[in-house]
């Protein structure tokens, strides 16, 4: 029931965001983090552990996009395409990525990813067992320019058992993740949400 409730909330939220942003988007091919109202922030904070909203705006040449989650342990890729989803797109839309604990097992989280645009909403959920760690951080870049053959990181969730503190991935990582993958070695477990836009 909780999963159904969360899906309804996320769908309504994504519809309102796309409706508000559609007229404001330029023809530049970009991914960006929208400004949320206090109400939207409260809904996401109360219904999920981690939450990310990313708007996309692409020109008419882009026809499809894919999203998936990668899992790393101490910098080594162990799950390359958790829940990969591909959908048709038209111009503007929103990607929503949330994690939430399941009621029956507090060690298990549900990863929820939705892509919403004029074609409708596509969603995947993926259960993942997450062992308790001392600290976690999450983040996403404010803006990404979409380039051909690029698979940008849209969001990151990092877990560490280091009791001396933990810090977010650097701006350089989000700007050019392939050149800064060594940063992932500092964490026990890292989840990256990636995307790919195709023409």
UniProtKB/TrEMBL annotation:
**Which keywords are on file for this protein?**
Signal
Q: Where is the signal peptide?
A: 1-21
Q: Which domain of life is it from?
A: Bacteria
Q: What is this protein called?
A: Lipoprotein
Question: Per the UniProt entry, what species is this protein from, by scientific name?
Answer: Peribacillus simplex
């Amino acid at each position: 029931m909780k999963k159904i409730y969360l899906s309804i909330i996320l769908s309504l939220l994504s519809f309102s965001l796309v409706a508000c942003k559609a007229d404001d988007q330029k023809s530049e091919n970009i991914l960006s983090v929208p400004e949320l109202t206090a109400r939207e922030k409260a809904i996401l904070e109360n219904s999920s552990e981690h939450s990310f909203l990313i708007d996309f705006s692409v020109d008419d040449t882009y026809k499809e996009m894919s999203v998936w989650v990668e899992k790393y342990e101490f910098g080594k890729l162990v799950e390359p395409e958790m829940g990969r989803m591909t959908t048709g797109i038209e111009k503007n839309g929103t990607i929503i990525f949330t994690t939430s604990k399941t009621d029956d097992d507090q060690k298990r989280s549900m990863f929820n990813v939705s892509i919403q645009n004029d074609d409708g909403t596509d969603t995947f959920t993926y259960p993942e067992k997450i062992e308790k760690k001392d600290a976690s951080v999450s983040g996403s870049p404010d803006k990404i320019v979409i380039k051909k053959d690029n698979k940008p990181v849209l969001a990151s969730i990092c877990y560490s058992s280091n009791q001396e503190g933990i810090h977010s991935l650097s701006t350089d990582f989000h700007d050019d993740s392939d050149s800064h993958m060594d940063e992932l070695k500092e964490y026990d477990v890292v989840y990256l949400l990636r995307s790919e836009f195709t023409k």
